[in-house]
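Backbone-to-sequence.
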């Protein structure tokens, strides 16, 4: 079972704020924190958030059927400020970071878009056909999708106090289902069913959760030949960067310390990407010393 070195750490972030890498997961959580502040300032269904939530026509806030098509993708943004929302963000951050490390930033971002867009489109279509009422807002359902995908891939991962991931996912989805049934909330039930379906189909389509053979495997991920070619190109680029770096830093010098010598051997054999941030800084400092000397 593979887990990244630190929750939230990304080797390929979209950008950095200071030394903090802003991955897709971190960006979504940050947007959620900002949304809680705005919610607190303007109140429930204030002038901003009333334009973002996904609602049926009966709420008189505007709806997709009235032309507000952006609601299909913006509904997870409004998050009510309370303690449980913070817990939700923390869980999303931990699990989302693992999935993003597994899938890569582009595929994970695409996965989140599917978790948002597919349920909203389907429930809006059912609303138009059957006249059901309801609304969806907040990151809660997207988090359920991330939890289901995580549990599908890492079924035996242990949650506190030692409960397997698949059990947690079944309990959470089961409770949400019972709550929607008890409230006779057909709207939320459809969104939940679509979210779980997209999560399972999505993680299988990317080539993971191979033990769940009963779930159809869609052809979203590239073929093995395409993946191999892409990996070969990436390795070639890494070797090229390593050679460029080695040209900038002589591989042997009488004044080179054993530690620097070992780092140069590591770059030559494993590539520049094998170095940690601390090791890179040591090598860069050595290069600067050599440039000043010459």
């Amino acid at each position: 079972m593979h887990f990244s070195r630190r929750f939230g750490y990304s080797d390929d972030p979209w950008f950095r704020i200071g030394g903090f890498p802003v991955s897709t997961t971190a960006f979504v959580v940050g947007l959620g924190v900002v949304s809680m502040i705005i919610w607190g300032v303007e109140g429930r269904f204030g002038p901003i958030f009333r334009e973002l939530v996904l609602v049926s026509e009966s709420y008189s806030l505007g709806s997709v059927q009235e032309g507000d098509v952006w609601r299909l993708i913006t509904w997870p943004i409004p998050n009510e400020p309370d303690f449980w929302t913070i817990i939700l963000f923390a869980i999303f951050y931990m699990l989302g970071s693992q999935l993003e490390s597994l899938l890569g930033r582009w595929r994970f971002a695409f996965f989140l878009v599917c978790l948002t867009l597919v349920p909203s489109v389907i429930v809006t279509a059912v609303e138009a056909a059957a006249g059901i009422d309801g609304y969806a807002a907040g990151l809660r359902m997207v988090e359920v999708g991330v939890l289901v995908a995580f549990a599908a891939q890492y079924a035996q991962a242990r949650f506190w106090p030692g409960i397997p991931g698949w059990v947690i996912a079944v309990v959470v989805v089961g409770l949400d289902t019972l709550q929607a049934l008890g409230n006779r909330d057909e709207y939320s039930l459809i969104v939940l069913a679509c979210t779980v379906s997209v999560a399972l189909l999505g993680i299988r389509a990317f080539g993971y959760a191979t033990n769940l053979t009963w779930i159809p495997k869609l052809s979203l991920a590239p073929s093995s030949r395409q993946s191999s070619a892409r990996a070969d190109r990436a390795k070639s680029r890494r070797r090229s960067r390593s050679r460029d770096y080695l040209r900038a830093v002589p591989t042997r010098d009488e004044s080179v310390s054993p530690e620097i010598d070992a780092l140069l051997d590591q770059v030559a054999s494993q590539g520049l990407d094998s170095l940690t941030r601390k090791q890179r800084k040591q090598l860069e400092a050595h290069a600067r010393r050599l440039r000043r000397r010459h």
